[in-house]
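[Discussion] Sanity-checking designs against the backbone

I'm trying to build intuition for which residues belong where. Below is a structure token string of 679 positions. I'd appreciate it if someone posts a full sequence so I can compare it with mine line by line.
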């Protein structure tokens, strides 16, 4: 019987996804390109392509028996063990296929970087290293599916190692380094949350992919897959010629790479495009240059042409052009194409007529300033009828400081940059020590020495400077920051249209969304109006999606406040059941004038009953009172008391003061240019 488990789907048999395949090939030719981030839908052959590429590439020479797969011909990158073999002339060479190492989202720091046995170092005076994922990935491909869900700290470690080619582990003054040069391939679905811009920028290339829309290609894909599943070996053999041709092209490109030259005019084109696109820093310029050179080598040329720079820009710039969390990527992509075309024409004109350079330059930089204030004029004019639905513009957003509920008493998993919590992960901050239960890999060296110090006179040293017993060992207690779930429950009834209250409320929510984006929070959005409440956006890490829903939120109808609070309570409880480590915080924006009941009781009475459930469950919350009439009923304050929430009135505050009010909710601390205060 044939064993089909080891027959990999051929790389050249993958239908479509040409940009993704090209990005992977470029990294195989020149790992200094910096890896690739693949964004898009599931089921689009991402993992298949990565494994197929590794199988396509020829075997590599390695030092026999080396756990890091060191290159036997490059002493500068060898590990300590291989250097010793070189000195003793015991180094042997073997051949291995390039490996694809998977990094699960749940991986710990020790699993990624490896560990040092501190106990062994103290007792024996010897370094003993346990390899991690980075060690196994050396000279291979490190594949991280859903990298946007990986802890930010681990993403930093991966990108640093990929850029430097070295992984260094330091524990209590003991340091160990080993080579860690690999092609980093990350995949993600943007709807599940974005990577921070600082991390996006560290990926050399980025490709956005979608499922194939052409029916003929989809049929071809199905036929290929059926043939492969029926007889993998025969199918792979039928593609052997195409695989060999591509393999030879990659090998020739690797040899040609050092001979490729890029002219000053092409370097100017690269930098000018980066300036036009408004990218930050200089990493984009350098990566575009490396990618252009690699493309020229892949095409069998020793000189970089404009077509290489254009193709490189399409791979290097898309993920670097988004300067704010809520920028529209499609508009930026259009701008990229326009900029490339403009620079091409400019280059031709410069070569023909240098004297006209100044005239064309001034013309290119002259931009009409029209339509500047149009977006703010659509909110003026007559107020809509309370029974009709109107979509109000979103008020201006602004920079805000963080809210930081304290969860130190509970160990919670997750990542983020807002609330403090105890953690078992070694990436947390060391705050104290304790006696371990069993063996520990996170030894508190200072506390261990202090525990052993009083007994040194009674212990026979036998030439040792210090004697440590198992009872002396102490482990570190660490804390780190995690994100919160911020659930906005927004009154979208007709009364919110008066005096632009909805505009101000949307502006406050938008500011909180931008803050949540920076602090890696989850957000959710509930709107209540008419006869009920709707969970417009379930809890998600993608605050950009929340912002889009917020902009389209219509206003009109009655005020079913009990429905809104109950929907908020149910949403938070469901999220806590799904993830007990969730840190929920509800923000209610309303005037409190409930006029639709759920169970036949007076609406305000129902609202208070539901609000008391939040207080009993210790779910933190804040209430922003939007009531602005001359005669005040104070209903939102009563609801706030039932919730146990911080209450603030909208009429005395500007839009930014709403956010300040939310930040002042116990037990949060806030800081603003005018001063700081805490509750």
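Best answer:
Here's mine. Compare freely.
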């Amino acid at each position: 019987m044939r064993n089909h488990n080891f027959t990999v789907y051929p790389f050249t048999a993958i239908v479509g996804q040409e940009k993704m395949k090209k990005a992977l090939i470029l990294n195989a030719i020149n790992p200094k390109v910096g890896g690739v981030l693949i964004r898009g839908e599931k089921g689009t052959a991402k993992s298949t392509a990565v494994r197929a590429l590794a199988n396509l590439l020829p075997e590599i020479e390695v030092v026999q028996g080396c756990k890091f797969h060191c290159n036997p011909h490059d002493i500068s990158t060898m590990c300590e063990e291989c250097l010793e073999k070189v000195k003793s002339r015991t180094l042997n060479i073997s051949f291995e296929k390039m490996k694809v190492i998977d990094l699960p989202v749940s991986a710990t720091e020790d699993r990624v970087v490896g560990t040092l046995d501190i106990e062994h170092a103290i007792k024996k005076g010897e370094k003993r290293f346990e390899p991690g994922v980075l060690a196994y990935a050396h000279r291979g491909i490190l594949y991280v599916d859903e990298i946007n869900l990986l802890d930010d700290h681990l993403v930093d470690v991966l990108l640093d190692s990929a850029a430097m080619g070295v992984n260094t582990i330091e524990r209590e003054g003991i340091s160990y380094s080993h080579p860690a040069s690999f092609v980093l391939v990350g995949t993600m679905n943007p709807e599940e949350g974005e990577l921070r811009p600082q991390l996006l920028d560290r990926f050399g290339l980025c490709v956005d992919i979608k499922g194939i829309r052409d029916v003929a290609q989809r049929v071809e894909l199905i036929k290929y897959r059926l043939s492969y599943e029926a007889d993998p070996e025969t199918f792979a053999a039928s593609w052997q010629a195409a695989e060999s041709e591509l393999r030879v092209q990659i090998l020739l490109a690797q040899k040609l790479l050092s001979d490729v030259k890029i002219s000053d005019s092409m370097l100017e084109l690269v930098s000018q495009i980066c300036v036009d696109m408004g990218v930050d820093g200089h990493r984009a310029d350098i990566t575009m240059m490396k990618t252009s050179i690699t493309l020229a080598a892949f095409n069998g040329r020793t000189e970089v042409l404009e077509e290489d720079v254009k193709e490189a820009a399409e791979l290097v710039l898309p993920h670097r052009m988004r300067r704010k969390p809520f920028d529209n990527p499609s508009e930026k992509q259009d701008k990229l194409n326009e900029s490339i075309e403009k620079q091409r024409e400019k280059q031709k004109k410069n070569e023909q007529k240098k004297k006209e350079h100044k005239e064309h330059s001034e013309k290119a930089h002259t931009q009409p300033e029209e339509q500047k204030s149009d977006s703010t004029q659509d909110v003026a004019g007559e107020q809509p009828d309370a029974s009709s639905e109107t979509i109000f513009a979103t008020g201006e957003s602004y920079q805000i400081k963080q809210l930081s509920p304290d969860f130190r008493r509970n160990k919670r998993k997750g990542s983020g940059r807002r609330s403090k919590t105890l953690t078992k992960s070694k990436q947390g901050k060391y705050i104290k020590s304790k006696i371990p239960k069993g063996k520990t890999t996170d030894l508190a060296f200072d506390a261990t020495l202090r525990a052993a110090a009083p007994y040194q006179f009674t212990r026979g040293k036998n030439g040792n400077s210090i004697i440590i017993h198992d009872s002396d060992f102490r482990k570190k207690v660490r804390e780190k920051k995690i994100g919160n779930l911020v659930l906005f429950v927004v009154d979208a009834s007709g009364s919110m249209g008066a005096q632009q209250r909805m505009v101000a409320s949307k502006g406050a929510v938008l500011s909180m969304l931008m803050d949540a984006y920076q602090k890696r929070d989850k957000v959710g959005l509930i709107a209540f109006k008419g006869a009920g409440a709707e969970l417009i956006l379930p809890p998600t890490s993608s605050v950009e999606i929340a912002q889009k829903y917020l902009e389209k939120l219509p206003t009109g109808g009655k005020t079913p406040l009990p429905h809104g609070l109950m929907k908020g309570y149910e949403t938070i409880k469901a999220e806590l059941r799904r993830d007990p480590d969730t840190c929920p915080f509800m923000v209610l924006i309303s005037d409190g004038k409930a006029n639709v009941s759920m169970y036949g009781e007076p609406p305000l009475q129902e609202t208070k009953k539901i609000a008391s459930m939040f207080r009993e469950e210790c779910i933190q919350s804040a209430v922003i009172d939007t009531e602005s009439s001359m005669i005040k009923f104070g209903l939102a304050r009563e609801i706030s008391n039932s919730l146990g929430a911080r209450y603030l009135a909208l009429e005395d505050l500007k839009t930014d003061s709403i956010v300040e009010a939310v930040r002042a909710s116990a037990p949060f601390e806030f800081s603003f240019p005018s001063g700081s205060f805490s509750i």
